[in-house]
């Protein structure tokens, strides 16, 4: 099966799965096909799915990620003892665990093709991730609290695990509580990594951007909290994953 045949199969399955999509036609353009697949995966509710779909989806997603290029954490160089800065797509990083900036529902982003990290991680991990998250949340019985963390398999991502957490949203002026919650986020994720014998963990710039946490203050809390935690930890590598040049410059200044 070629990659285009896999793509067509996945689209055909998801369209036929729901009667409300019966009027959707599979486009001819590869780009439009990929956008449609991502959209359908994003909005799909956590429900049972056939093994054949999972098999072909896994083959498709793993090939897509390989084509984007996988970065092995062991190829990176630290800027400070056990601390790394890496600018790139976190869904292509091969390491122990990547941290997902989730919402309190912990089911991933349902907005089609949204540019948030939650959407990207759920898209390229595959539909199994939402199913596992749903099982965890049903067992818990309530929304996830800010600053806490849960761990899942990574499925089709090159990392071993995904650690999901909810960062603080800043309303107006930055408050002390916001800073305490952000610090808690880093500590809880590091604890979760240690509990699962994970030796390398990659953090995104959580709560900045749409959550309005000032970038410089967020980075300062990240570096200070992680540095202090590592003094008594066996975690070997902590990667600060940045997407914007602004954040790369901030972390570089703090660590060098």
Q: What is the chain-wise order of helices and strands?
A: HHHEEEEHHEEHEHEH
Helical segment count: 8
Largest sheet: 6 strands, mixed
Give the overall silhouette: globular
Q: Helix/strand-derived class?
A: alpha/beta
Mean pLDDT: 94
Could you list the spans in which at least 5 consecutive residues all have pLDDT below 50? none
Proportion in β-strands: 5-15%
Tell me the radius of gyration: 19 Å
What is the terminal separation in angstroms? 49 Å
Strand order of the largest sheet: 2-8-7-4-6-5
Number of strands: 8
Summarize the amount of helix as a percent range.
40-55%
Brief write-up:
The chain has 256 residues and is of the alpha/beta class.
